[in-house]
Predict the 3D structure of the following.
Amino acid sequence: PPTETIFNLVVPSSQKMLTTIRSRSQRIRFAPVSDLEIEAYLEERGEPIRKDVIAFATGCPGKVFRLLEGGYELWKESVDLLFSWMRMPLLEMYDDCKNRLASFSSNDAHKKLDFQNRLLDCMEILLRDILVLQSTGDIEKVLLQDYVSTLQKWTERLSPRVIADLEEIINQAREDQIINVDPRMELENLVVQFQQALRFGYV
């Protein structure tokens, strides 16, 4: 290509890039977009402004549009499923997780991946709300309002170190998707570690 050519590489983790490419690249980090900026953008496009959807998107405009296009109800179902799993006996939870993933056909790989990503998003929001309660105690700032009382109980069990460990597990799961780790094994491992942390306070 001509010498003035610039390539824009968008990656979830720079560590997955070849060292030779990473060393010749300039890293640009994108901060979350503010809720007010997203509202202004939606208004400009004539899209409905739903503050609950904007809050759940956590600063990602693309996620706002996916939620507005029918993904919000699926997301809420995933939240309910995650909290249901956290209350189940371990073996029952394991079987339910396995059966749900087995219900996707070989032609539904993208749907299975979407299912896993929604659960990862839910886990991140759950940890975000626990950190909010730990640092401010303000339940009005909690996104998962239907589960405030449960989150308050979990807030007492999880230390900042355990929350950091769970965040690392989520990040690793996202990176593993890139190298096609079996989503069934990945998800089963995740929910088991989450349940262990929320029940006993350690990973």
Observations:
- The chain has a mean pLDDT of 85.
- The chain is about 65% helix and 0% strand.
- The two ends are 49 Å apart (CA to CA).
- The first helix runs from residue 19 to 22.
